[in-house]
């Protein structure tokens, strides 16, 4: 993951998330969609740990190869934690 941008929306509204994958990261649309689906899956599995009222945008950076789901989950949760978005 490259960056996370958080901005407070309304305190009682649900948090919103966005995942962006450029063609430089994965040239095929199938692979870009796989990264996005995995990102949303991590959020879905951990939504009860995330504070409400935030909008976050994640951007994948080019790596050495495919990332495992467990590594992706660890990285996303680490970013959310460092941003103070976890309960």
Sheet with the most strands?
A: 3 strands, mixed
Order of helices and strands: EEHEH
What is the structural class? alpha+beta
Low-pLDDT residue spans: none
Our Rg estimate from Cα atoms comes to 13 Å
Portion in beta strands: 15-25%
Q: Termini, distance in Å?
A: 21 Å
- The oligomeric state of the chains shown is single chain
Helix content: 25-40%
Query: Strands across the major sheet, in which order?
Result: 1-3-2
The pLDDT mean sits at: 86
Number of strands: 3
- CA-based shape: elongated
> How many helices?
2
Task: Kindly describe this structure.
- The structure is a single chain.
- The protein is an alpha+beta fold.
- 36% of the residues lie in helices and 20% in strands.
- The chain is built from two helices and three strands; from the N terminus they run E-E-H-E-H.
- Strands 1-3-2 form a three-stranded mixed beta sheet, with helices on one face.
- Helix 1 packs across helix 2.
